Amino acid sequence: SISQHDSPPKQLPKLPTTFHALRADAVGSSFRDVATIKEEPMPEPGEGEVLVKVRFAGINGGCETFRSRGEAGFEGNKNKPDGFHLGAEGAGTVVRTGPGVEKFSVGEDVLFIGGAFAEYAIVNSATLIKVKEASKEAVGLR
């Protein structure tokens, strides 16, 4: 039985079955050469991951050039047969948590790194930073 002090289970927000993301199929000579908008199936977060609804994305032209070319810290992009997401720092709201995630809950606003040029991003929860509000000002803090 539920006592008057127990709150009802929190309803998870309904999510679309697909979302849009800016992706690259492979590295190339520039961001313009590789960036394409793709419709992707909505993912479920795995162990230690969260699904974030992206509200703001930072733009760092140098970083995206390196990511697109597979240079500097992004050499691994050269070996990704399925391509890779574009965008670095982002701010958004947690909409799903995977198994083992204890420090974050659905509805909390966070800052993250990776895949920010999308409507949703799967992020390792160990890399998230909680913020009072996801905002264009906050995204620069990450």
Describe this structure in words.
The strands form 2 sheets. Strands 7-3-5-6-8 form a 5-stranded antiparallel sheet. Strands 2-1-4 form a 3-stranded antiparallel sheet. With 142 residues, the protein is mainly beta. It is globular.
* Morphology call: globular
Q: In what order do the strands lie side by side in the largest sheet?
A: 7-3-5-6-8
Main sheet overview: 5 strands, antiparallel
List segments where confidence is low: pLDDT < 50 over at least 5 consecutive residues. 1-5
Using only CA atoms, what is the Rg? 17 Å
Provide the structure class: mainly beta
Strand portion, in percent?
25-35%
How many E strands? Answer: 8
Short précis:
With 142 residues, this protein is mainly beta. It has three helices and eight strands; from the N terminus they run βαββαβββββα. The strands form two sheets. A five-stranded antiparallel beta sheet has the order 7-3-5-6-8.
Topology at a glance:
Layout: E1 18-24, H1 31-34, E2 35-41, E3 49-57, H2 61-69, E4 84-85, E5 89-97, E6 109-113, E7 120-124, E8 129-130, H3 136-139
Antiparallel strand pairs: 1-2, 1-4, 3-5, 3-7, 5-6, 6-8
What are the salient characteristics of this protein?
142 residues; mainly beta; five-stranded antiparallel β-sheet; three-stranded antiparallel β-sheet; 3 helices; 8 strands; globular; disordered N terminus
